Amino acid sequence: MSEEMLSAEFKAILILAVLVSAWIAVIAVNCRHSVSGWRGYLLWCINRLFLGWGFHVRMNRRCPFPETGGALIVANHRAPLDPMFLWQNNHLRAEGTGRFRIIRFLMAAEYYDIHPVVGFICRAMRSIPIARDGKDMGPVREAARLMRGGDLVGIFPEGGINTGPGLRPADTGVGWLALSADVPVIPVCILNAPQAGSMVAAFVKFQPVRVRYGEPIDLSAYRGRRKTRELLEEVTLKIMYAIGELGQFDMRDYRCLCPSLNGKTATSG
């Protein structure tokens, strides 16, 4: 190999090393000064790179999550990666500084102990552990308090991963949370999320994913009223209809999945 070729190769390696070093330095500085902590910022960088490369996430619009203040983000649940899809582009807002924000997801408590890496991610994301049986309202009340204090909270009202068509019935806890926090409730629908036989397999089942954001749901007609079971059911149904409309799901039979809602007048409008 000629001396000229060696020199050119050395220069290319040197330039690449300088660029990588600069990139690492920028990440290190941002990690240090991030309001979400270095763990949150590092996970966000990994999330952006991994999903952008493997799943080519596309949105229907700029992210409507607020730049400041609390909000409740509600979405359908099709895959283990859904929290990552919701978080990936939350800095791409129509207005604001472009600063990413942590979304504090209500998450099944057992995930904290399922694996050290998963536990690290749950704690870095400041997730809110909750029992699957839904009998403990403590975490739900804590989520409402956090939103009133200015945090973003994410919830999947279906309660678990839905492998069937359309949407599954939702627990009325999401209705209680929406009314108690008194913050914007933003519906999101995730389409074509990867499903596989195991949680790990879903992470390497690469395919294009679409995220559709909706406008905040108008719940003004329900606020200030006593939170009866009937009222919470109506609010929950309204939230699920908003998600279904974004996904263009056939919601004509959804009410039939919730027998106690028969005859109610809640709609997606």
Structure description:
- The longest helix has 31 residues, at 3-33.
- With 269 residues, the chain is of the alpha/beta class.
- It has one domain.
- Residues 263-269 have low confidence and may be disordered.
- Helix 2 (37-54) packs across helix 3 (82-88), helix 6 (138-148) packs parallel to helix 7 and helix 7 crosses helix 9.
- It starts with a helix and ends in a 22-residue tail after the last helix.
- It has helices spanning 3-33, 37-54, 82-88, 111-114, 116-124, 138-148, 173-181, 199-202, 229-247; strands at residues 58-59, 71-75, 103-108, 128-130, 152-155, 185-191, 210-213.
- It contains nine helices and seven strands.
- The radius of gyration is 21 Å and the shape is globular.
- It has a seven-stranded mixed sheet with strand order 1-7-6-2-5-3-4, sandwiched between helices.
What's the helix and strand layout?
Elements: H1 3-33, H2 37-54, E1 58-59, E2 71-75, H3 82-88, E3 103-108, H4 111-114, H5 116-124, E4 128-130, H6 138-148, E5 152-155, H7 173-181, E6 185-191, H8 199-202, E7 210-213, H9 229-247
Parallel strand pairs: 1-7, 2-5, 2-6, 3-4, 3-5
Antiparallel strand pairs: 6-7
Features of this protein?
269 residues; alpha/beta; seven-stranded mixed beta sheet; 9 helices; 42% helix; globular; disordered C terminus
- Estimate nothing, just give the exact number of structural domains: 1
Structural class: alpha/beta
Q: What characterizes the major β-sheet?
A: 7 strands, mixed
> Kindly, what is the distance between the CA atoms of the first and last residues, rounded to a whole number of angstroms?
71 Å
Rg, rounded, reads 21 Å
Order of helices and strands: HHEEHEHHEHEHEHEH
What level of helicity do the residues show?
Answer: 40-55%
How many helical stretches? Answer: 9
The total count of strands amounts to 7
